[in-house]
Amino acid sequence: MLSTRAHTAKFCSPKQAAQLSRALAPLLSASTSTLGKPVGIRLAFVPAVSQHCQRHNRSYGGARAFSTTSVTRMRDFFPAKETENIRETLPAWPHHGFTEAEMLAVVPAHRKPETWGDYFAWKFMRVCRWGMDFCTGMRGEQKVDKRNPTTATQSIKPLTESQWMIRFLFLESIAGVPGMVAGMLRHLHSLRRLKRDNGWIETLLEESYNERMHLLTFMKMCEPGLFMKLMILGAQGVYFNGLVLSYLISPKITHRFVGYLEEEAVHTYTMAIKQIDDGHLPKWSSSEFVVPDIAVKYWHMPEGKRTMRDLIMYIRADEACHRGVNHTLSNLDQKEDPNPFVSDYKGGRVPPRPALKGEGYEREEVL
Ligand SMILES: [Fe+2]
Ligand SMILES: [Fe+2]
CATH no. for residue 192? Predict the structure, then answer.
């Protein structure tokens, strides 16, 4: 681990700041990777110089507070666009927010497969999880109890920050696909069949948007290596087409599969929070760690609640929502039932809260 600092001129423009960031990168060199695995990423635990200059137009003294890899240049993959007339572009779907109690109430959960479709979705997810563990370079002692893979959180050895970041990036890069596929196919179905959709499309598209915000947030902290980029590219190609086919054949099983995927996401983030709490991830617990601006703005993270742990708490609550939504949608009639999560209930009843129902709601509970 190495501590580095870069100071920028007060008057830097976004473009100059980006150039400066690139120019400084070799000087802000770091030590060797703690991972040593082929799936490379370059870590930087605070936003790049350009982002701070754009936001504050002043030296912030925190270009890349510390880094752990042999970084030669760190790019801002998603710089905010600023034109002559546009100051900023706000998110199309503002985050609905969580209370602290809601975030703390999230726990890993698992819905037991009941039908052959559930069983198929669950088994296929086990294969995907094995693949992700393999790509993350997880060793035996870093894994949890195999009998309860989505609820057990105790392992003999913790993962490193680099391993976690690879896991987060890969997970988020594929997690944004199902909502878009399902929303797109339901949209086309509605147009083609001249039928109402009853509120599913917006929830599904918003889910994929939310997943992309997770990815953008992590991309402000690290840069994937070439191998990782190729893996993401290949995975998306296979995954997107597979999901289109799967959703056309059985949307019910596909929603169940996504419910299981989200169980994995909640489990992953719960493990990360636990390992931060146990003091195994010092770089993320450091007082020098700064959450990217994009995350602060999207989740409206309050002052004093902007640690990596806080950020993961927000993301985990999002994943818990996706888990509850997809398991519930899988329980509904795919053609006729309305989306309960955006419905106005009779008698002042409040809509269901998916984050708090890990196994999802049964049809009779919500309709
Ligand atoms: Fe996510
Ligand atoms: Fe998710």
Answer: 1.20.1260.140
347: how many CB neighbours lie within 10 A of its CB?
4
Strand pairing category for 222-224 and 41-43: antiparallel
Residue 351 domain-assigned?
A: yes
Residue 180: name the closest of 151, 155, 209 by CA.
209
How far, in Å, from the CA of 196 to the mean position of ligand 2?
26
Report whether pLDDT(3) > 50.
no
Q: For residue 178, which ligand has an atom nearest its CA? A: 2
In angstroms, rounded to a whole number, what is the distance separating the alpha carbons of residues 275 and 114?
33
In a domain, 55, yes or no: no
Structural domain contains residue 29: no
Domain annotation covers residue 91 = no
pTM of the entire structure? 0.81
Q: Burial of 16 by CB count in 10 Å (0-12 exposed, 13-18 middle, 19+ buried)?
A: middle
Distance 256 CA to ligand 2 centre (A): 13
Query: CB neighbours of 187 closer than 8 A, spacing ≥ 6?
Result: 197, 201
Coil, strand, or helix at residue 222?
A: strand
Tell me the residue range of the domain where 213 lies.
100-366
Q: Specify binding-site residues for Fe cation.
A: 172, 211, 214, 262, 319, 322
Give per-residue pLDDT as tens, 320-330: 999 999 999 99
User: What is the domain count for the chain?
Assistant: 1
